[in-house]
Give the backbone structure.
Amino acid sequence: MKSAVAAPFSLVGPTKLGLSYSSYVGPFLADHPGEIDYVEVPFELVHYDRRPLGLPNEMPLLLHSSSLSLAGDVPPEAEIVDSVAAWVSKTGVPWLSEHMAFVTSGSSAGFDGSEVPLYDVGYSVNPPLNVETAHRVISAVDRYRRRLGVPLLLENPPIYFAPPGTTMTPTEFANLVCAACPARLLVDLAHFYLSCRNLGLDPVSELLGLPLDRIDQLHISGVSERDGAWWDDHTVRAPDEVHDLLSLVLRSTPVAAITLEYNWSGNFPIPALLGEIERVRGSLAVAGAAV
């Protein structure tokens, strides 16, 4: 039996706007009731720290994971999968979002022929984008969809360079995965923008090439440029280019949820956050997605 720890996230009605959990979120909710509709919490945090579950007003939750290593050649430990399943049940979420990435890699032959042991990177890493990796993701989606009892939303990880073995673009990879399994998408627009810039691709044409009708959720955060490369940055506001991609998606398809990911600093400026909330709600209104 499900034992909800917060009000259930509702899929009924207009697009919901939420925040990714950080230490400032609780006080923000208390000081600004009604500004957001839900809080997205990482599984890795609630697995060890239940502070996100003490948010005021029984705020609805979404659960986000970086632990299932969907694109890896070694599955996570059974205890991790059991814990993910338990938190899916406790929170009563309508889906689990997870990166199309890996955190562990199996033993293999090194460059000198010696065996390279199992390695846990400690965070999700973008895999080579090719048919072999796509088949791993497709298989993992089926396995975890049955194990967890909820749909999986697949998030595009940030790409800082094309890993060896890459044979397709992120858009081609997403299309291949979606054609072969019922997974839905969480498109991180900052990831998408910086990945296209780093790979020399046009973000607009690549975005329009995605299976847009599969998108249920969007992430918005900042990016930074350094030494000719673009990087994920959740400490700064999203640039105009990311908001332009948001407007493009909203004009093309309805989405259930949009999450502002300004969670790398407990001191993210509240006026800036309120400005971002207002800007996204304005984009929703223009697109006709809000009441």
